[in-house]
Specification:
The chain is mainly α and 156 residues long. It has a domain of 81 residues. The protein is flat.
């Protein structure tokens, strides 16, 4: 029951943060619209505003990414999959969810993904039949030594 209460609290946190980002986005759009309606100032002001626009654009991109993650977490809550690691299917500890409510992976799986970014256990392009020689018995030991491999023809 404690986890369910925590999930309800996290839902409220996510919804509040989503509303905050949407409100900020609307405020920024209104400010941008008002600024371009009143173009006053010299070249230095224009250059300064250009730099400010670039910074605002980068911040808006970060907000947009966070908003997408929040929306995804809210959908997972609705489907009943929130708080379950997408990689190992174990429950994500509440401490991690409290720190980062839109987490989709447990710490161990996230660290593994960061260390090996090209690997993910749920990848659909994995073809494990190519990993072993199907003609050999899996019980039969197979020793492969680096000296047995012809690496000279592959190295350039």
């Amino acid at each position: 029951m404690a986890r369910q209460d925590a999930l309800i609290r996290l839902h409220n946190t996510l919804a509040a943060r989503r509303d905050e980002i949407l409100e900020k986005r609307q405020h920024d759009l209104d400010a941008l619209h008002n600024f371009h309606d009143d173009p006053t100032g010299d070249a230095a002001d224009v250059a300064f505003e250009s730099g400010s626009d670039e910074m605002a654009s980068q911040l808006a991109e970060l907000d947009s990414r966070e908003l997408n993650q929040i929306e995804r977490a809210l959908r997972r809550l609705e489907k009943g999959t929130y708080g379950v690691c997408e990689s190992c299917s174990q429950k994500i500890p509440l401490g991690r969810l409290n720190a980062l409510p839109y987490s989709t992976m447990c710490i161990e799986c996230k660290r593994e993904l960061e260390e090996y970014p090209d690997w993910h256990p749920n990848r659909s392009d994995s073809n494990w039949e190519k990993v072993y020689d199907a003609a050999r018995s899996l019980d039969e030991p197979r020793e492969v030594r680096l000296s047995d491999l012809d690496l000279g023809s592959r190295m350039t």
